[in-house]
Design brief:
Helix content: 25-40%
Oligomer: single chain
Order of helices and strands: EHEHEHEHEHEHEHHEHEEEEHHHE
CATH architecture of the largest domain: 2-Layer Sandwich
Structural class: alpha/beta
CATH superfamily of the largest domain: Dihydrodipicolinate Reductase, domain 2
Number of domains: 2
CATH class of the largest domain: Alpha Beta
Strand order of the largest sheet: 12-11-7-10-9-8-13
Largest sheet: 7 strands, mixed
Number of helices: 12
Shape: globular
Length: about 350
C-alpha cells in the first residue's frame, strides 16, 4: 500500500466537494492500493476545522505550513484572484498542482503564470471537469471514430437553475468567463479545432442587481472554427426547469446529444412523449458528480506519474481567450477575431 498526501487550499462549496472526493479515493486506485491522505487550510479556520474533521483530514493554519508539511500534490479551490500566487507556490515546492479554472482573471494575467510554470518545470492540471464526463467522452470517441462524419454545427447550453450571489458575480469576470468557458473548452477539446471568431449578445431580465454588478444573466455567443464549422454557446443564470448542460453535435453522417437523459431539464411539447421522466439536476455538483470524482482520481494518477496531464494550463488559457473575446464582443456589439493558431 502506497501513501500519498494531498494539500487542499480553500473549502468553500467546490473545495468541500473536492475534500470529500479525495477522501473517497482511498483503496479504489487498484491494483496498487493507494492510500490518499488529506491536509487542508482555509482563512475561515473554524469552518475548515469542521470540514477536516468530517472527512478525516488534518487542518493546518496557513498555506505555508500546508506546503511545508511535505505534501505530494496541491489542490487549489480558492477565489480566482488567488490562483496565480498559489500556483507559483506549488511549482516552487516542486509538487504537481491541481487548480480550479481559470488560471487567472483574464488571459493577460494568465500568460506570466504560464511562463513561470514552464520556466520552472511545473506540472499543473486545471479543473475542466467536463473532460471526464461520460457523455462528452463518448461524443469525442464517436467523432474521432468517424461515426458522425464531418461536423457542420455544434450547439452548447449551460444554464443554472438559480443565480449565484451577486457578490460572487461582481468578481467572476462575467457570464462567459465564469460559465461558458467550460463550453469553449469542451468544443476545442472535442473537435481539436480552434475558435477564430466570436459574436456575442446578452440580456438582463432577472435581478437588476446582476446588471448593476456589470454582468448579464443570459447570453449567446456565435462561434466560428478555423475550418469554417459553426457553433453557438448559450448560457443563463435563470433556468427554473433545473441545471441544464447539453451539447448537440450535428455531423454529415450522424448526430449526438450530450446531456439528454432521464434527468434532463427539458420537457417535450409533443403528444404522448413522457421523456424525460426523472427529476432534473438542481446544481452543477449533481450534474457532474462522477466527473469531479474522476477528475480528482486523474490528478492522483498525475501525482504518481502514471498519466499525462489531462488539462494543461495552456488548454485552459486557450478557452479563456475565447471567453475574453466573447466578453469583448458583448461589450462592443461587434464580432471579435482571434488568431487561428495562438501561441501561448
Amino acid at each position: 500500500m502506497k501513501d500519498i498526501t494531498l494539500g487542499l487550499v480553500g473549502v468553500g462549496r467546490i473545495g468541500v466537494m473536492h475534500a470529500r472526493n479525495i477522501a473517497s479515493l482511498n483503496g479504489v486506485l487498484h491494483p496498487q492500493g493507494i492510500n490518499v491522505r488529506l491536509r487542508l487550510t482555509d482563512v475561515a479556520a473554524d469552518h475548515a476545522r469542521t470540514v477536516a474533521k468530517g472527512v478525516g483530514a488534518e487542518f493546518l493554519p496557513t498555506v505555508g505550513e500546508l506546503i511545508g508539511s511535505g505534501i505530494d500534490g496541491l489542490v487549489i479551490a480558492t477565489g480566482t484572484g488567488t490562483h496565480p500566487d498559489l500556483i507559483r507556490a506549488g511549482v516552487d515546492a516542486g509538487i504537481p498542482v491541481f487548480c480550479e479554472k481559470p488560471v487567472a482573471m483574464n488571459v493577460a494575467d494568465s500568460l506570466p503564470v504560464l511562463d513561470y510554470i514552464r520556466a520552472n518545470g511545473g506540472t499543473v492540471q486545471i479543473g475542466h471537469q467536463r473532460r471526464f464526463d461520460a457523455g462528452y467522452l463518448e461524443a469525442k470517441r464517436a467523432f474521432e471514430a468517424g461515426e458522425l462524419g464531418w461536423i457542420h454545427s455544434l450547439r452548447a447550453v449551460t444554464c443554472d437553475m438559480t443565480p449565484p450571489p451577486v457578490e460572487f458575480l461582481a468578481t467572476s469576470g462575467g457570464l462567459f468567463r465564469d460559465c461558458s468557458v467550460h463550453d469553449f473548452d469542451i468544443l476545442r477539446w472535442l473537435t481539436g479545432r480552434e475558435i477564430v471568431e466570436v459574436y456575442a449578445k446578452g440580456s438582463n431580465n432577472g435581478d437588476p442587481a446582476i446588471g448593476a454588478a456589470g454582468d448579464v444573466d443570459t447570453a449567446l455567443a456565435f462561434v466560428t472554427f478555423d475550418d469554417g464549422t459553426l457553433g453557438s454557446v448559450g448560457a443563463s443564470r435563470y433556468n427554473g426547469a433545473g441545471h441544464d448542460v447539453r451539447l448537440e453535435i450535428q455531423g454529415s453522417a450522424g448526430s449526438l446529444m450530450v446531456g439528454l437523459d432521464e434527468k434532463s431539464a427539458v420537457t417535450s411539447a409533443e403528444a404522448g412523449v413522457a421523456f424525460p421522466s426523472g427529476e432534473s439536476h438542481k446544481t452543477f455538483a449533481e450534474r457532474f458528480g462522477q466527473a469531479y470524482r474522476s477528475e480528482m482520481a486523474a490528478f492522483v494518477e498525475l501525482v504518481l506519474g502514471r498519466r499525462q496531464n489531462p488539462c494543461t494550463p495552456e488548454d485552459a488559457v486557450a478557452a479563456s481567450r475565447v471567453a475574453d473575446a466573447a466578453q469583448e464582443s458583448l461589450e462592443t456589439g461587434l464580432p471579435v477575431r482571434l488568431a487561428a493558431a495562438a501561441t501561448l
